[in-house]
Design goal:
The complex is a heterodimer of chains A (470) and B (312). Chain A has helices spanning 14-22, 75-85, 156-160, 168-173, 180-195, 201-229, 233-254, 274-299, 302-308, 316-321, 326-331, 338-341, 362-385, 434-438, 442-446, 454-461, 465-469; strands at 8-12, 26-35, 41-49, 53-59, 63-65, 88-90, 115-120, 132-138, 141-148, 263-264, 267-268, 402-410, 413-422, 425-432. Chain A has 470 residues and is an alpha+beta fold. Chain A is globular, with a radius of gyration of 22 Å. Classes of the chains: A alpha+beta (470), B mainly alpha (312).
Chain lengths: 470, 312
């Protein structure tokens, strides 16, 4: 059994895991369970200790001590374990069902004169994913917000089980539709790490192109949607056009708008001709320029700034305590980026600039996305200029058995796949989606704002329901 | 003849209301570099809604179905007070501007009742927000119209329009400038346009007017949508009639009416472009800044009234 050389860790006790999580410079990455072929139940703790991933696998018989009191980021993971494996978590402050919707659920009640509860969703007025939000409001001010999600829980991790490792990417691509290439690459890297395979340089560079393009498209769409939410329709329409031009460039050069079917374990499926590289580079340059111009206009519009500035502040402390990731964390001054901290693929050969802001409001998150789009566009140009020659994929053992994990920086932040392979088939696959990590931090940004600003704050986090619910 | 024109202009106002919305939407689409839907699409929407089933929540009383009918009826009645093609209206002499203002308030009151009767939390939330906006918009609207009424020594809308149209355009007083400013701000708030409300939003928590009508469907929704289109057109016609009535026919000659129709179309086109440009260039206000926005309208309206003392 191989574990990637960059990771340390292995079997341990629950106390080891808790001690690790509570030590300084440690960030919780994921907690999940597994049952192996002999019926042994394990709980796996993955943490980032000084920019190094560590995994501790704990055999479970009966209960587990809760990590939540010392490390609040663990709360949802332990609730999920409780729901899905029936593991008793001793000392957890809140073991209400998280994923399961069968049992009765009691929302936290804010008491006091003039406090009202405002239920919103899961069916909304617009066509968006389902999520229920229970606001405790005093007038229009939000005192407390409790989200109730997992309406789109599809049991995706279970669906992976028994699938051939070569068929895994198709399922990974469907976990969160707007980040499908990041999911596919994270899945493929976990298989490659498990077998200790390295992807040929040209395959790595093509993957980088896709990852950065996906980030650009997601960020451009997010900035446009933020403007749309405050009723500023012109930037919303223009950014939609820019995103579409990038999608069409993908379709022309790679034969797929959303990069579906490109990543496979061992590399990529589709090569890029010299002419296509040129067309693609031009399209990205145009899109980036148009967006930079639009972003300048947006940031120069006082009515937009008035809505963005100081709205929905996520404090640095809350972001750290809850282990927030991605642009949300970086907008609150938490400088984490998998591309920089745990370089993978072609990122090992380059330095990635990681913009960050301190204020943690909607404006910071919008500016994060604007800055990252610029960085991504430049990474694509640099990569296209230094596109490695050679083959694009390498064979993967079809009937091996191994375990491994890998993370990528998806547009929403750290996305991790952990995989257990038995005879070329997936025995267990865990998906740590950045949305699952960031959802618990949203209520902290919303409290104290007016309920009418919630949609804007929610959009500035832009968390995936499907990716979180799986 | 006059009577016929009065009837025709009121019916025209009601009939072209969806078109005005369609034109604004089309201009906004062009500004966004989109082709946009046909200007006739609001009619198609109304037709579609009138053919659909009217769903009533289990918790609702008879009031729920009655409210849209009353809203449409009073809005249509209000349209009869506004001079459009010539400087009089069917009820223009008998009814004064105070009646017009409270006819609109009456319709809104029933819409708020209907929204709360629907039983959803958004109906109540929308109704409370609408109540806030309308309470704050009422004073500036009345004061602005009062200032013009003092100046023209009449409280009937026809009288005001007639007095203005007979003036030499450059002899208008500062009262008109302040009153126009106040009325434009009120018009934006009353008709639920950006920056006070976003008629195109799908985010229920940000809604004012749209939150109230979330529970409505089918013919009831069609009546509400049509009524709000009529209200927009009516308020535009009121602004045009009080502040820029030139081109209106003073007699009942055919030539005069044709010219008046042309002038009316032109003035409405300019208004639609103005609305579309404003809505495309600014974001919606934060909800708690809406009272400030209407406070500004009140200040302008008070200035308008104060200035009438100087204009004697």
């Amino acid at each position: 059994m191989t574990i990637s050389s960059t990771t340390r860790g292995g079997e341990g006790s629950a106390e080891d895991a808790l001690r690790l999580l509570e030590s300084s410079n440690t960030r919780l990455v994921s907690i999940f369970g597994s049952v192996d072929e002999s019926g042994t139940q394990r709980v796996h703790y993955i943490a980032d200790v000084n920019r190094e991933y560590r995994i501790i696998n704990v055999r479970v018989a009966g209960g587990l001590p809760s990590a939540t009191p010392g490390s609040p980021a663990a709360a949802w993971y332990e609730r999920e374990l409780h729901d899905e494996y029936g593991i008793e978590i001793d000392g957890h402050p809140d073991l209400r069902p998280l994923v399961s919707h069968t049992a009765e659920y009691r929302f936290l009640q804010v008491q006091g004169v003039g406090v009202c509860e405002l239920p919103v969703g899961p069916v909304h007025a617009g066509i968006i994913e389902p999520g229920h939000f229970r606001f405790s409001v005093m007038g229009d001010s939000v005192l407390h917000l409790e989200p109730r999600l997992f309406f789109t829980h599809k049991g995706t991790e279970r669906l992976f089980e028994g699938t051939s490792i070569m068929d895994g990417p198709a399922l990974a691509e469907s976990v969160s539709g707007d980040n499908c290439f990041a999911h596919a690459v994270a899945y493929c890297q976990s298989v490659e790490n498990a077998f200790g395979i390295s992807v040929p340089p040209r395959g790595r560079t093509i993957r980088l192109l896709g990852l950065e393009l996906e980030r650009m498209m997601a960020h451009i769409a997010d900035v446009g949607a933020l403007c749309g939410d405050v009723g500023c329709v012109v930037p919303a329409a223009y950014t939609a056009r820019i995103k579409e031009s990038l999608l069409q460039a993908s379709a022309r050069c790679f034969g797929t708008r959303f990069w579906r079917g490109i990543a496979i374990p061992g590399g990529v499926r589709r090569d890029l001709s010299v002419e296509s590289a040129c067309v693609f580079g031009n399209a990205v340059a145009h899109g980036a320029n148009d967006f930079a111009e639009m972003a300048r206009i947006i940031l120069d519009t006082p009515s937009v700034l008035n809505r963005f500035e100081g709205t929905g502040i996520l404090s640095n402390k809350n972001a750290r305590d809850l282990g927030s990731v991605g642009p949300v964390a970086r907008a609150s001054g938490v400088r984490i980026d998998v591309r920089h901290d745990h370089p993978y693929g072609h990122y090992r050969n380059i330095t990635v600039e990681t913009p960050h802001f301190q204020q943690g409001d909607v404006l910071s998150r919008a500016r994060m996305r604007i800055e990252e789009t610029r960085v991504s566009a430049r990474l694509i140009q640099d990569t296209l200029h230094g596109l490695a020659a050679g083959i694009i994929s390498t064979p993967v053992p079809r009937d091996g058995s191994a375990e491994g994990f890998s993370a990528v920086e998806s547009p929403r932040g750290e996305l991790l796949y952990w995989i257990r392979i038995r005879n070329g088939r997936i025995a267990r696959c865990h998906v740590k989606s950045p949305s699952f990590q960031n959802w618990p931090s949203l209520p902290f940004a919303v409290a104290g704002n007016i309920s009418a600003d919630f949609p804007l704050i929610n959009k500035s986090f832009n968390l995936s329901y499907s990716g979180c619910d799986r | 003849m006059n009577l016929a024109i009065d009837v025709i202009q009121a019916l025209m106002l009601i009939a072209i209301a969806p078109l005005v919305r369609g034109v604004i939407a089309r201009i906004k689409a062009r500004i966004q570099n989109r082709r946009g839907a046909s200007v006739l699409r609001p009619y198609a929407d109304l037709l579609k809604l009138f053919r659909k089933q009217d769903l009533v929540p289990d918790t609702a009383s008879g009031l729920f179905r009655l409210a849209p009918v009353i809203l449409f009826a009073v809005t249509a009645t209000a349209a009869v007070f506004v001079p459009v093609l010539h400087a009089s209206a069917l009820f223009g002499v008998g009814g004064d501007f105070i009646l017009l203002v409270y006819l609109l308030a009456f319709g809104r009151f029933f819409l708020m009742l209907g929204a709360m009767d629907g039983g959803s939390s958004f109906g109540g939330m929308g109704a409370s927000r609408e109540a806030l906006v309308s309470a704050l918009a009422e004073a500036p609207l009345l004061l602005a119209l009062t200032s013009v009424a003092i100046l023209t020594h009449t409280i009937s809308l026809s009288g005001i329009v007639l007095a203005t149209v007979q003036q030499y355009p450059l002899h208008l007083s500062a009262v008109y400038v302040f009153a126009l400013g106040a009325m434009v701000l009120v018009a934006i708030a009353e008709t639920g346009r950006i920056p006070v409300d976003n008629p195109a939003t799908h985010l229920e928590l940000t809604m004012l007017h749209e939150a109230m009508v979330l529970e409505y469907s089918g013919p009831s929704l069609a009546l509400i949508e049509w009524a709000s289109a009529v209200k927009l057109t009516l308020i535009l016609a009121l602004l045009v009639g009080v502040f820029a009535p030139w081109g209106m026919a003073t007699g009942a000659s055919i030539v005069g009416l044709v010219l008046a129709s042309g002038a009316f179309a032109l003035k409405f086109a300019v208004s639609a472009i103005a609305i579309a440009v404003i809505e495309s260039s600014i974001a919606k206000l934060r909800m708690y800044l809406v009272p400030d926005f209407l406070g500004m309208a009140s200040a302008l309206a008070i200035l308008a009234v104060a200035f009438t003392a100087l204009m004697r």
